[in-house]
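Task card 7
Instruction: Convert sequence to structure tokens.
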Amino acid sequence: MLNKNEFKSIMAKHGDRQEDIALAIGMSPATLSSILNGGRREFRRNEIELMAIRYNLTGEDLRRIFFTNVVA
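Output:
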């Protein structure tokens, strides 16, 4: 499950708006907004990989932001 606050914090730290990251990972701003607001769709693997590169995210960052409350 997405940690929306962590995600928005990373975006802000890098000076990105929702529109910036949406276009950078190849989705519409409306789709990103839907994901952030708990819509049916979640980020796809390739989208997470693009954000990991863009924001230089570690494995721990990825778990904290994109995979919270997931039981292993």
